């Protein structure tokens, strides 16, 4: 069934099923194993892709939060003098 | 100048040492798992978790943050809102990440290319707005909406199977992979996730460092 579908689609996504399974399993390694089912071999590709999208969005949000905190810390450093000397030696 | 450089270098090494010490536990576990993994995946897996890579990235991140600091202190005329500063830090971190990828991946090249494109756009804008401003803005918005409409239509068609649709969504999340083929998007996504994880770890440890210095009582 999936073979027929991939042949019918006009886009250039005619990769073999094996290649797809290979790439998806490789991708699955790096996802945090929150929703681990009993049959860990037969998780659907669609689920893996959904988890990947969610994970990337989560990482983006974390980076945004961290960069906001970093910018606040970098600015608040100038107020105290003894710590500012140390941090200036680190960052300048 | 030479004395200044020699003064700067040891402090950066101390921060990277601290960064390294905190990461040693995660790196040792990652190294043991990477030896058992496959050929290509272990390569990229080990690449983003190696100590050397983390050292390189943290050094570049610190340099980039120095520049952000200098820019923000120099340009006091522009309203330094917290959001702008946060975005500047995020862009600097992304750039440092892209540079440490050494141009081997699509997303890193896209991040670096986008920055150059933005610089050119900023220079060109004052010229185009002197002409009929209403016409240009209308044309731009209609072009953008046309592109968006086409991409949304393609995503909503039932002919495209579920998996392909999700791969397209993933391609939009990873920078520079909006119009790539499916295997390319999946490969870029694996590398991008690992790089993002390293970025998060590095920024976390930097934040902890700075906040611990800030809250430490001054020596009397």
UniProtKB/TrEMBL annotation, chain A:
Domain of life: Eukaryota
One GO term describing the cellular component: nucleus
Coiled coil: none
Membrane-spanning intervals of the chain: none
GO molecular function, one term: protein dimerization activity
UniProt main location, coarse: nucleus
Pfam hit, one: bHLH_ILI
Domain BHLH: 4-59
Annotated InterPro entries: bHLH_dom, PRE
Database matches in PROSITE patterns: BHLH
Cellular compartment(s): Nucleus
Family matches, as PANTHER family: TRANSCRIPTION FACTOR PRE, TRANSCRIPTION FACTOR PRE5
Protein name (Swiss-Prot/TrEMBL): Myc-type basic helix-loop-helix (BHLH) domain
From TrEMBL, chain B:
Keywords from the named record: DNA-binding, Nucleus, Transcription, Transcription regulation
Top-level taxon of origin: Eukaryota
Domain spans labelled BHLH: 147-196
Record carries keyword DNA-binding: yes
GO CC annotations, alphabetized: nucleus
Signal peptide: none
Cellular location(s): Nucleus
GO biological process: regulation of DNA-templated transcription
Low complexity composition bias: residue spans: 26-43
GO molecular function, one term: DNA binding
Main location: nucleus
InterPro entries assigned to the protein according to its UniProt record, in alphabetical order: bHLH_AtIBH1-like, bHLH_dom, IBH1-like, IBH1_N
Name of the molecule in the record: Helix-loop-helix DNA-binding domain superfamily
Annotated organism of origin: Arabidopsis suecica
